[in-house]
């Protein structure tokens, strides 16, 4: 079986993931979608979907080879397939965030907290190192949630530079995704 998900000859994004689930009619209610800027996004997952790679905030690229145009079509595609195998291609925001942090801080020390959008990043300024705890939101914003609120002017400047670059690259990635999707 051959699926075409994107325009042109570009490979599928490395942040995309394929999930296969066998669902009962009851399981079909365990996922909810919303439409954001013309893309279908996973709004909520429970039940059997928690065992998959599909996470809240991910974009739904296709369900059984069909790219949904909106949230209601995505929900219908899931309901129509109850008691059968569902193959869903999604674009993982968690993987996008991790890849962007690695790209923007190739020399930085980054440790992600398991299963979350929070990581500890070590910034070096001169001979000193500063560890900051950052939370990354699904809209591309990130915030410093470190316990230690005192930051030097230079560290504050580096944090702002990093968060602004992250936001810009995040939105560029989402725009590229929208442009690659077939409509």
What does it look like?
The protein is built from three helices and nine strands, in the order E-E-E-E-H-E-H-E-E-E-E-H. It has 183 residues and is an alpha+beta fold. It folds into two domains: 16-91, Pdz3 Domain (Roll); 95-178, Copper Amine Oxidase, Chain A, domain 1. The protein has a four-stranded antiparallel beta sheet with strand order 6-7-8-9, with helices on one face. The chain is elongated and about 60 Å long. Helix 2 (93-104) crosses helix 3. A hairpin with a 5-residue loop joins strand 8 and strand 9. The protein starts with 15 loop residues before the first strand and ends with a helix.
Summary of the model, kept short:
The protein has 183 residues and is an alpha+beta fold. 27% of the residues lie in helices and 31% in strands.
Topology (SSEs and partners):
Elements: E1 16-22, E2 31-36, E3 39-45, E4 59-63, H1 71-80, E5 85-91, H2 93-104, E6 109-112, E7 118-125, E8 128-136, E9 142-144, H3 153-180
Antiparallel strand pairs: 1-5, 2-3, 4-5, 6-7, 7-8, 8-9
Helix pairs in contact: 2-3
């Amino acid at each position: 079986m051959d699926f075409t998900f994107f325009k042109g000859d570009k490979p599928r994004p490395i942040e995309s993931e394929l999930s296969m689930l066998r669902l009962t009619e009851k399981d079909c209610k365990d996922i909810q979608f919303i439409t954001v800027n013309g893309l279908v996004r996973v709004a909520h997952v429970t039940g059997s979907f928690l065992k998959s790679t599909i996470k809240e905030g991910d974009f739904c690229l296709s369900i059984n080879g069909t790219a949904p145009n909106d949230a209601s079509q995505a929900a219908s595609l899931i309901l129509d397939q109850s008691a059968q195998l569902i193959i869903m291609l999604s674009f993982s925001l968690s993987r996008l965030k991790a890849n962007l942090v690695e790209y923007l801080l190739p020399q930085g020390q980054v440790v992600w907290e398991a299963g979350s959008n929070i990581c500890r990043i070590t910034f070096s300024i001169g001979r000193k190192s500063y560890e900051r705890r950052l939370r990354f939101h699904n809209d591309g914003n990130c915030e410093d949630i470190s316990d230690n609120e005192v930051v030097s002017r230079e560290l504050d400047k580096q944090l702002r530079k990093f968060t602004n670059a992250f936001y810009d690259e995040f939105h560029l990635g989402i725009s590229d995704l929208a442009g690659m999707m077939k409509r």
